[in-house]
Design brief:
- It is a single chain.
- By secondary structure, the chain is an alpha+beta fold.
- 37% of the residues lie in helices and 25% in strands.
- It has two domains: 58 residues, no CATH class; 83 residues, Roll (Pdz3 Domain), CATH 2.30.42.10.
- The strands form two sheets. Strands 2, 3, 4, 5, 6 and 7 form a six-stranded antiparallel β-sheet that branches. The chain has a two-stranded antiparallel sheet with strand order 1-8.
- Helix 2 packs antiparallel against helix 5.
Length: 152
C-alpha cells in the first residue's frame, strides 16, 4: 500500500510538473531527488511508445521513434477501437492507460484500430524504458525546475 501511494505521489508530481508553463510555477524539489524519483517510477515499467488523445474517441497523437508502437505499425491518426478485447469506443485516455497497465503481466497489447476506412489488428510488445528515454523524460521535467540543473 505504501509503495502504491509513493508511486501515486510521484505520478502526481510529474503530472503537475508537466502542466507547468515556462514562466509560471516551477518545481521546487531538489534536482537529484526528482531525478531519482522519476527513475524509480519508470524503472521496471513498460511502455508502448504512443501518445493518445481524446478526439471523438481515442486517436494516436504521436509515436516515439524506434518504439514498440512504431515497430508494430501504429500510425499517427489511427483511431483505437479495442485493446485486449475491451472496447475503447467510449473510453478516456485514463481508461486506455489503465488497460495498458493491466497488460504488464503478459507484456503484450492487442489493438484493433480504424485506419483509412478499415479495421486492422496490431500486436504490441511492451518494453522497459531505456536509459535514453528516461534521460529525455527527466530532462523535460528538469526544465520546470526553479533551480539551475546542476543544483541540489
Amino acid at each position: 500500500m505504501i509503495h502504491r501511494l509513493s508511486r501515486l505521489a510521484i505520478a502526481g508530481l510529474l503530472a503537475a510538473a508537466a502542466s507547468v508553463y515556462a514562466d509560471d510555477l516551477k518545481c521546487n524539489v531538489a534536482v537529484r531527488e526528482c531525478d531519482q524519483q522519476i527513475r524509480n517510477m519508470l524503472g521496471g515499467k513498460r511502455f508502448h511508445g504512443a501518445q493518445i488523445e481524446e478526439k471523438k474517441g481515442l486517436v494516436v497523437k504521436s509515436i516515439t521513434e524506434k518504439s514498440p508502437a512504431e515497430r508494430a505499425g501504429l500510425r499517427v491518426g489511427d483511431r483505437l477501437i479495442a485493446i485486449n478485447g475491451k472496447s475503447l469506443t467510449n473510453a478516456s485516455t485514463r481508461d486506455f492507460k489503465q488497460l495498458v497497465a493491466d497488460a504488464r503481466n503478459t507484456g503484450r497489447v492487442g489493438l484493433i484500430i480504424w485506419r483509412q476506412g478499415g479495421y486492422r489488428k496490431l500486436d504490441i510488445r511492451l518494453e522497459p524504458y531505456s536509459k535514453e528515454q528516461m534521460d529525455k523524460i527527466i530532462a523535460g521535467h528538469l526544465a520546470t525546475h526553479a533551480h539551475p540543473a546542476g543544483s541540489n
